[in-house]
Design brief:
Layout: E1 7-13, E2 16-22, H1 33-45, E3 50-59, E4 69-77, H2 104-117, E5 121-128, H3 137-145, E6 150-152, H4 156-164, E7 168-178, H5 189-213
Parallel strand pairs: 3-7, 4-5, 5-6
Antiparallel strand pairs: 1-2, 3-6, 4-7
Helix pairs in contact: 1-4, 2-5
Length: about 220
């Protein structure tokens, strides 16, 4: 898949044992929601209790700049298929509460680390959509009017399943392009990758320090 190696990595980060995905399965590639979220269920069965997620997203907040890191406070799910549709897995209730999917203590910890290290961190609501097209200017404006700060084609299904499993979740979006403003901005996959790669060291520093300090 473009921009995703599709590897499962075991190692250490911040002095802790971690399991990481170098790439992910996307719904727009034709995978079912069960396939998209299967790695999260594997992580749960292996004893993972905290999930850190990241993505590249288009920013709709006028205060955002390309390359900004946005801590995800909440999400809006626009995927046409729900990852918990069908028989309920015994990892969680049939109707899970969604009031605080993204852990408040982890978000506060990220802010603290960002202040210490002088890393600009924004906050916002991530809108998850099917893709694979980037958004039209009107779609950007619609998502923003509905309360969205950034939009992308991943993350929400995996987060829902992790939350259903009782895992703590922390998420960051790298703002790789901007849309919905008065002047239309064209975007390409290559430009998105370049912006994401440029911000990767700052995001890695936040993740590394958070993992080191987590109980």
């Amino acid at each position: 898949m473009d921009g995703h190696a599709g590897k499962l990595i075991f190692g250490k980060l911040g002095g802790r044992d971690i399991m990481a995905m170098d790439g992910r399965f996307h719904y727009y590639e034709g995978y079912s929601m069960k396939e998209v979220t299967f790695p999260v269920r594997v992580m749960y069965e292996l004893g993972i209790n905290t999930l850190f997620v990241s993505n590249a997203a288009g920013g709709m907040n006028p205060s955002f700049k390309i390359g900004d890191l946005m801590i995800i406070d909440d999400h809006i799910n626009f995927f046409p298929e729900h990852p918990l549709h069908g028989k309920n897995f015994p990892t969680g209730p049939r109707f899970p509460d969604m009031h605080e999917v993204y852990d408040k203590q982890l978000r506060d910890l990220a802010d603290e680390i960002g202040r210490e290290k002088g890393i600009r961190l924004m906050h916002g609501v991530y809108v998850g959509v099917q893709g694979p097209t980037f958004e039209t200017p009107s779609e950007y404006r619609m998502y923003h009017l509905l309360g969205g700060s950034a939009v992308g084609m991943s993350t929400v299904p995996e987060v829902i399943v992790a939350h259903h499993c009782g895992m703590k979740v922390f998420g960051i979006s790298v703002i790789t392009d901007l849309g919905g403003f008065d002047v239309p901005v064209e975007v390409s996959h290559e430009e998105v990758q370049q912006a994401a790669n440029a911000s990767q060291p700052l995001m890695a520093e936040i993740f590394r320090e958070m993992i080191r300090r987590c109980n």
